[in-house]
């Protein structure tokens, strides 16, 4: 399969992104053959791209885990690079170098390097994500940080980031999502996620409910496992908002204990997994550095409060369950609306079922694109479940405008259902069109536990 040969290369980031979207006949084409061939041409296998590499897979919790890995490593003084997807507002969000988003010039140079290698011989067609991943790996390799952290885009075994061997693998959760590509067999999905593991290299299992296939795959490879609630323990938050972590040293295998850790504003399972993974990657944990890192971590779109508006990218029942639990801990004195926008291939009924107990009224919004679900279709799902639909909007922006005109001082709005939904709401906030019914005491963005 080939794409147009030797086209004039774009000159800026916007041009490159538009160019890459046109190069492959389908947007998602799982497999490592094409991306591996281009990586070989780029010399990405000639030497490690970083001192240590951690790869994170899972249905939910990947973004939270990556954010805490980065914050903890930076608090210990390590140089870092993180690669995540998708982005909310800017493509630059996907690649962070020492906690700073990559600039346009770096990304343009990375895409140019990929394109040169892609056309060096028989042209090789790449998807948008594959080209972006190779560009990110190229940029990371130029910097050679002490720690690189890669988030799997979809699945694990056949995801483009899996062309590199991780020193430590993390599997956060396994649930049904992306059924068109991963199917609905939870054991098979588990095997796909576990595909990031490598023989003899440790892996952290960040959930107590993983399918048996994950451990079976690890055992078949001889992977040393560090599982939540077994080798890795963590307490709940105490009355002062502190918690306790216990893991294992990679060198001696003895217990490591950290007390009085702050609430990171993200799931504690992910925090516990991040601490164990860093230990396995050779970092000697310092208690004060860990407290500093967890206190400073931030992640947009995960239980992100903008005054009375809460934004979370939850788009499957597992993630929605977590959001509902967090909302239950924050009572609403007025009326709580949910602005819901979802893609057609997501389990809308399951998401609604998890959130229903925390929502008084729903506003549905249509999304754009071939996978989009209309506001009317979402409203039908809600009404079939006996949920009150206050309004149907043709876009997230229109839903934000409708809500902004009607909110009382004690009302809240949960914006959820998709990265696209949250991204559009964030854009409205940046443009000053997401209106607060009252001034918050703290005008800064606050983050609480998130789902992704």
From TrEMBL:
* Mur ligase C-terminal domain boundaries: 301-419
One GO BP annotation of this record:
folic acid biosynthetic process
Superkingdom = Bacteria
| Pfam families linked | Mur_ligase_C, Mur_ligase_M
Record's GO cellular component terms: cytoplasm
The record describes the protein's role as: Functions in two distinct reactions of the de novo folate biosynthetic pathway. Catalyzes the addition of a glutamate residue to dihydropteroate (7,8-dihydropteroate or H2Pte) to form dihydrofolate (7,8-dihydrofolate monoglutamate or H2Pte-Glu). Also catalyzes successive additions of L-glutamate to tetrahydrofolate or 10-formyltetrahydrofolate or 5,10-methylenetetrahydrofolate, leading to folylpolyglutamate derivatives.
Task: Report the InterPro entries cross-referenced here.
Answer: Folylpolyglutamate_synth (IPR001645), Mur-like_cat_sf (IPR036565), Mur_ligase_C (IPR004101), Mur_ligase_C_dom_sf (IPR036615), Mur_ligase_cen (IPR013221)
Q: What is its EC number?
A: 6.3.2.12, 6.3.2.17
- Which SUPFAM superfamilies does its entry note? MurD-like peptide ligases, catalytic domain (SSF53623), MurD-like peptide ligases, peptide-binding domain (SSF53244)
Top-level EC class as recorded in UniProt: ligase
Q: Please give the name of this protein.
A: Dihydrofolate synthase/folylpolyglutamate synthase
Question: Which family does the UniProt entry place this protein in?
Answer: Belongs to the folylpolyglutamate synthase family.
Q: What catalytic reaction does the record list?
A: (6S)-5,6,7,8-tetrahydrofolyl-(gamma-L-Glu)(n) + L-glutamate + ATP = (6S)-5,6,7,8-tetrahydrofolyl-(gamma-L-Glu)(n+1) + ADP + phosphate + H(+); 7,8-dihydropteroate + L-glutamate + ATP = 7,8-dihydrofolate + ADP + phosphate + H(+); (6R)-5,10-methylenetetrahydrofolyl-(gamma-L-Glu)(n) + L-glutamate + ATP = (6R)-5,10-methylenetetrahydrofolyl-(gamma-L-Glu)(n+1) + ADP + phosphate + H(+); 10-formyltetrahydrofolyl-(gamma-L-Glu)(n) + L-glutamate + ATP = 10-formyltetrahydrofolyl-(gamma-L-Glu)(n+1) + ADP + phosphate + H(+)
Pathway, per Swiss-Prot/TrEMBL?
Cofactor biosynthesis; tetrahydrofolylpolyglutamate biosynthesis; Cofactor biosynthesis; tetrahydrofolate biosynthesis; 7,8-dihydrofolate from 2-amino-4-hydroxy-6-hydroxymethyl-7,8-dihydropteridine diphosphate and 4-aminobenzoate: step 2/2
Q: Which residues form the Mur ligase central domain?
A: 56-198
State any single GO MF term.
dihydrofolate synthase activity
